[in-house]
């Protein structure tokens, strides 16, 4: 719990691109969690299959690429 609070406070003081990285890492897990993992744990059946819900995890590298490209564009380092 203390680590989470320290992490949140650290992100609040850092640049906005760190928040972008955090959201890009957390958001793709939510559909997998809410559409597959939690229904399996609670109802013993899933809403959509694990392979379909795992497709959302492909958004993680896309989010990292977007964060890196947007940081380069803001810094003016376009190659």
Name a few traits of the molecule:
mainly alpha, about 80 residues
Word description of this protein:
- The protein has 79 residues and is mainly α.
- The chain has one domain (15-75).
- It has helices at residues 2-13, 16-26, 29-43, 50-54, 59-75.
- α2 packs antiparallel against α5 (59-75).
- The model has no long low-confidence stretch (mean pLDDT 77).
- The chain crosses the membrane at residues 20-41, 47-67.
- Keywords: Membrane, Transmembrane, Transmembrane helix.
Q: Summary?
A:
Keywords: Membrane, Transmembrane, Transmembrane helix. With 79 residues, this protein is an all-alpha fold.
* Uncertain ranges: none
User: What's the rounded overall pLDDT mean?
Assistant: 77
Overall helicity: over 70%
Order of helices and strands: HHHHH
C-alpha Rg (nearest Å): 16 Å
* Percent range for β-strand residues: under 5%
Tally of separate domains: 1
Shape: flat
Q: Pairing-aware structural class of the strands and helices?
A: mainly alpha
| SS field, number of helical segments | 5
Topology, element by element:
Elements: H1 2-13, H2 16-26, H3 29-43, H4 50-54, H5 59-75
Helix pairs in contact: 2-5
Transmembrane segments: 20-41, 47-67
Keywords: Membrane, Transmembrane, Transmembrane helix
């Amino acid at each position: 719990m203390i680590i989470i609070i320290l992490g949140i406070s650290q992100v609040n003081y850092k640049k906005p691109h760190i928040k972008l990285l955090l959201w890009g890492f957390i958001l793709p897990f939510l559909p997998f969690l809410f559409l597959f993992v939690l229904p399996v744990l609670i109802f013993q059946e899933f809403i959509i299959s694990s392979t379909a819900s795992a497709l959302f995890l492909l958004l993680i590298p896309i989010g990292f690429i977007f964060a890196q490209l947007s940081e380069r564009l803001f810094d003016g380092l376009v190659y």
